[in-house]
Specification:
Shape: globular
Number of strands: 2
Pfam family, one: Sugar_tr
Transmembrane segments: 47-68, 80-99, 105-125, 137-157, 169-190, 298-316, 323-346, 366-388, 431-450
CATH class: Mainly Alpha
Number of domains: 1
Region (Disordered): 462-505
Subcellular location: Membrane
Order of helices and strands: HHHHHHHHHHHHHHHHHHHHHHEE
Helix content: over 70%
CATH architecture: Up-down Bundle
CATH topology: Growth Hormone, Chain: A
Keywords: Membrane, Transmembrane, Transmembrane helix, Transport
Number of helices: 22
Largest sheet: 2 strands, antiparallel
């Protein structure tokens, strides 16, 4: 990593420990709820109780993501992350020490509350720290760390499944406290968002933070500082004071909120969380053992994380958002459709086509392989969903806009988590046809309604919604700013083209 980007990358990477916690918390429950020791400890919970254990986490996350709109603007970004870490530690302790389902649900609820706070705040914090040239790269760290957390959860769960007794489920749940404590202790060593500081009237501190983050690029510091000051001055007189004003006083704000909420809805309606949460039980329904199911789940998560890494390095800075999203959504729809068709052909893999024999092993392997193919197609949507919502709002409403969008994500997550055990038991693999339709509908909406934001500074991205522009136009000015530097007192323009080079490593 070249020195101009080392500090800002380090700050964003540390902040996304909260995203790691998000992924771990979401992934660990899938390795726990199918353990025999867990079932015995909680007296074989019913489908409804299992859905409640999973859904309580999502319910807490909805509350947390909505609270961000009241905390992040007056407090700042760092205090919200600190509180999130403390709550996550408490939630982990309650879950690991649970003596009944009610206590487990309470722990999941508090853990969800912490993740709701952090999942809304981290994309905003990273985007407000990032220079335009590597904002896509740094914004993608949220999804990358979510994926890493899920992988760690899956392999911790698999490793613990090789042991006996309550350790098989208590240790994975207790481990949530480790990243939470590290985040809470270390967050005060990171700089506060310069845009938040300037908006609070602390312009000198904001400028000092920009200088610290971009020390070797004086033209970028000056131009970005001027853009922020100008943008905040324009926003201040029309900044909404109430939710009613936010949603109904400005058509452009309402438009942005709908786009951000829609993008988060696409992720939940893709089916990815259904696969990641209930994959072990899906594999068990295909006739695989508990340990084999957990091992395959771990491999699935590791491969998904590999795709995340490849896309961040090779594509996220080079290709427009829409170019990445459309194949992603179409591919996921096709994968889900074929998965459902296989399940239908083999009667949910309980018998063969003639209803008198077990399904061929090849059909079971094909069903598992399709989940792996799905992970490839999901990569673009997963990376861009968090990045897009952090780019399209002005500073005055960025925290509240991200809050509403993230609450949409968790609300749908809650619905699917609660309904999926029941839907799976009644519909079998036909359930996946629903997600095929959702993905194809999302692709049509992206094509029709979503403007391009790649390659622009945050202040320039705001103007996409304030004037008529082709949806596919890619920004240039943000990269142009970073192509200038001081050389022996002279300002030299290196290039005015959008760089096709991936972020420095």
């Amino acid at each position: 990593m070249s020195s101009p980007y080392l500090l800002v990358t380090t700050c964003c990477l540390f902040a996304t420990l909260g995203s790691f916690l998000f992924g771990y918390d979401a992934g660990v429950i899938s390795t726990v709820i199918d353990q025999e020791t867990f079932k015995r400890r909680f007296h074989n919970p019913s489908d409804a109780a299992t859905g409640g254990i999973v859904a309580s986490y999502n319910g807490g996350a909805i509350i947390g993501s909505l609270l961000v709109s009241y905390l992040s603007d007056p407090w700042g970004r760092r205090p919200v992350l600190f509180v999130g870490g403390l709550l996550a530690t408490l939630g982990a302790a309650l879950q690991a020490g649970a003596v009944n389902v009610a206590m487990l649900i309470a722990g999941r609820l508090i853990a969800g509350l912490s993740v709701g706070l952090m999942s809304s705040t981290i994309p905003v914090y990273c985007s407000e720290l990032s220079p335009p040239r590597i904002r896509s790269f740094l914004g993608s760290l949220q999804q990358w760390m979510i994926g890493l957390g899920a992988v760690v959860a899956q392999w911790v769960g698999y490793g613990c499944s090789l042991r006996t007794g309550n350790f098989t489920w208590t240790f994975p749940l207790a481990f949530q406290a480790v990243p939470a404590v590290i985040l809470s202790c270390g967050i005060w060593f990171l700089p506060e968002s310069p845009r938040w500081l300037i908006e609070q009237g602390r312009s000198d501190e904001g400028r000092s933070t920009l200088t610290r983050l971009h020390a070797s690029n004086t033209p970028l510091i000056e131009t970005e500082y001027t853009q922020i000051i100008t943008s905040i001055a324009e926003e201040r007189h029309r900044a909404p004071r109430t939710w009613r004003a936010l949603l109904f006083s400005s058509a452009t704000w309402r438009h942005r909120i709908l786009l951000a909420c829609g993008m988060q809805a696409f992720t939940q309606c893709s089916g990815t969380n259904i696969i990641s949460t209930y994959n072990p039980s899906l594999y068990r329904s295909l006739g695989l053992s508990e340990k084999t199911s957990l091992m395959i789940q771990g491999i699935w998560g590791a491969l998904a994380q590999f795709w995340n890494t490849v896309f961040i390095i090779l594509f996220i800075e080079r290709l427009p958002r829409r170019t990445l999203l459309l194949p992603s959504l179409l591919g996921m729809g096709a994968t889900m459709c074929v998965e459902a068709a296989l399940g239908q052909a083999y009667h949910n893999f309980t018998t063969g086509p003639d209803n008198h024999q077990h399904p061929p092993a090849t059909s079971v392997r094909a069903a598992i392989a399709l989940f792996f193919v799905f992970s490839l197609f999901y990569t673009s949507l997963g990376l861009i969903s968090w990045l897009y919502q952090s780019e399209i709002f002005p500073t005055a409403i960025r925290a509240r806009g991200a809050s509403v969008a993230t609450a949409t994500n968790w609300s749908l997550n809650l619905i699917f988590a609660q309904c999926t055990p029941i839907a799976r038991s009644r519909m079998g693999f036909n359930y996946f046809y629903c997600f095929a339709a959702f993905n194809w509908a999302a692709a049509a909406l992206v094509w029709v309604a979503y403007p391009e934001t790649a390659g622009r500074s945050l202040e320039e991205a705001e103007h996409v919604f304030d004037r008529k522009e082709p949806r596919t136009e890619r920004g240039h000015r943000g990269h142009e700013l970073e192509s200038q530097h001081d050389t022996k007192g002279g300002l030299v323009t290196v290039s005015t083209e959008v760089s096709a080079t991936p972020p420095p490593t």
